Amino acid sequence: MTTADSQPTSSAPSSSSTEIAWSDDARRAAFAQWLAVQAAAHGLDAASVRPASADASFRRYFRVDAADGSGRSLVIMDAPPSHEDCRPFVQVAGLLGTAGLNAPEVLAWDEAQGFLLLTDLGARTLLAELQAQDFSTREGLKAADTLYRGALDALIGLQKIDAQAQVPAYDRALLRRELDLFPEWYVARHCGVTLDAKQAEQLEKCFELILKTCEAQPAVLVHRDFHSRNLMVNVDGDATRPGILDFQDAVWGPVTYDVVSLLRDAYIEWDEAIQIDWAARYWERARKAGVPVQEDFGLFWRDLEWMGLQRHLKVLGIFARLSHRDGKDGYLKDLPLVWRYAHHVAMRYSVLTPLARLLEQLGDVKAEDGYTF
């Protein structure tokens, strides 16, 4: 999972490309040479290049304006080949575009140097649009509902793509490696807790239950980071076609993964009644579209919760790792919401009680009230 601001999401004043920080002079020179060629081919103002966003990985993004003053812009991805493999991005972008989804089109790609020229999906994320709404009003809630319905419809379009042979499998081994980030980075490194033998055994049993439930789900194309920071508000105002970003880690895996990524987003929280309403609307439309969801909504919701638990335990580990290993402390402010998501599900299902108690020990909070199944 790359997480957070992983594609261009904010405008910045125009500045000279020489003001962009580079790791070495050789890469600066290579970029300048490549940009000159692209500027001539696509009618760009090379002097207008400015930062658009950074990524939780080694990727960076810049914007560049058209030279004709039309206001049109394109996006440049800087992805050093020694750290980033752009082939999955290019491949999945093609899959999404062919399916009619609103994803960046790759206009030019220097594979050897890791420079890509992309169409620009705009500068306003779904999260920014939501944060601008007043949810105490009917209009604000209606706007959010429209945006989420559009995002879920786009997700159904993504899930209908037959890409099993073209992306990696989201198999047990990968799911387990992700879960292992929780004890390694959140429990041990972030919380400074060493599990005793009993706690380790109980956590292992909970992990096995989670893996078993996730593995049993029908499989589709999974974006793997389908949330409010990776969805862009359509510049044409069409809520049914949100821009889709950060899809390079797509896999073939559990059908509920992207749904819960959106509804239980690490960056914005919704009441469970609203989550269920959106999930039910998605479920109805997905069934009609032939997406292999459970026939019974109750079972679908259970699958969604358990899949979300796997994701949120992973995210606790990833956010802790980003802070302690990579020095990116900005993600720590999002830990409490992710913790609440994980604790909520662990409390709801009695077989996960040991996990709930461990989370309480780590988070130093009291158990919340809630239904138990």
Automatic annotation (TrEMBL):
Domain Aminoglycoside phosphotransferase intervals:
49-286
Q: Does the keyword Nucleotide-binding apply?
A: yes
List, alphabetically, the Pfam families matched: APH
What are the entry keywords?
ATP-binding, Nucleotide-binding
Q: Where is this region: Disordered?
A: 1-20
Signal peptide segment: none
Compositionally biased residues, Low complexity = 1-18
Specify the protein name.
Aminoglycoside phosphotransferase domain-containing protein
